[in-house]
Design brief:
Blueprint (H helix, E strand, L loop, with lengths): L3 H29 L17 H8 L1 H34 L5 H13 L2 H15 L5 H24 L4 H9 L4 H29 L3 H6 L7 H11 L3 H35 L1
Helix pairs in contact: 1-11, 2-11, 3-6, 3-8, 3-10, 4-6, 6-8, 7-8, 8-11
């Protein structure tokens, strides 16, 4: 039988191997994005930033970035506001069918996106909303809302209801309690929910393929169309920038959580 030391060593080796398997494709794509060749090749024979220049200099790619940013920000606002109100009602409210409502809000996680996309497309086509960016944000909110709801429910569990009751005893109105007590304490969770909902929208492909049309082509749709027509290192440059955006969003989330948690941890 293997001893505990050998088992621990094998487990660490397995973890390292799995991490390497996850990180290696990202590193390969990032290196390939600086290739000076006319096609995707690893390792590249020459290094160049020509594909980043082509990406940022092409109107279609710039338009796709603007559309994705606009839709992502709107989705973040919609889903965070709706998700926070829903999470607060589910955590503090006492009403019938609360479990059913929570299940319905979380259902987009279970339902395949292709089904949601087809359903929303038929509704959008009938109402003439295909290619309308605010409407695409509404559709993205449907799939981002479960993520926001889970994060904010977890954040609201750390808010002691006794603090709210104490504020009301001291003469604060219900809205004042919500604004002065609940919102500040739940702010780190709200920031995390907003960032993750933005990333969910920014990376959404299936729903965007059905709803974007020609007028509101998002970055994932543009990548998809480019892969269908040609495979060039521009795709690697775009993928690297997307990873940079995701990393920056996660870093902002970590910094905000640390800054908000620092004073509380010090008091404890």
């Amino acid at each position: 039988m293997m001893g505990p030391v050998l088992r621990a060593t094998l487990l660490k080796a397995l973890v390292v191997l799995l991490c390497f398997g996850l990180v290696a494709p990202i590193v390969i794509v990032a290196i390939a994005s600086f290739s000076g060749d006319g096609y995707l090749k690893f390792p590249p024979e020459t290094l160049s930033i020509r594909w980043y220049e082509r990406f940022l200099g092409d109107y279609r790619w710039r338009s796709a970035i603007v559309n994705s940013l606009f839709i992502g920000v709107l989705t973040s606002v919609f889903s965070t506001v709706i998700g926070f109100l829903a999470a607060y009602a589910l955590m503090r409210g006492q009403f019938r069918f609360k479990a059913v409502i929570a299940s319905l809000l979380l259902m987009p996680v279970i339902v395949p996106h292709i089904i949601t996309a087809v359903a929303v497309y038929f509704l959008s086509a009938r109402m003439g909303l295909v290619g309308v960016r605010p409407w695409i944000s509404v559709a993205h909110t449907v799939v981002a809302l479960p993520v926001v709801l889970v994060i904010l429910q977890s954040a609201l569990r750390t808010v002691d209801p006794a603090l709210e009751r104490a504020a009301m005893v001291c003469g604060c109105t219900r809205f004042g309690v919500f604004r002065r007590v609940v919102l500040p304490l739940a702010l780190p969770g709200m920031v995390s929910a907003a960032l993750f909902s933005f990333l969910t929208s920014f990376d959404e492909l299936v729903i965007s393929l059905f709803l974007a049309g020609i007028r509101a082509e998002t970055l994932p749709v543009r990548i998809w169309n480019s892969l269908l027509l040609e495979v060039e290192p521009t795709i690697a440059a775009v993928s690297t920038l997307l990873k940079a955006v995701t990393t920056a969003a996660l870093a902002v989330d970590a910094v905000i959580r640390k800054l908000r948690g620092g004073p509380v941890a010090a008091l404890r």
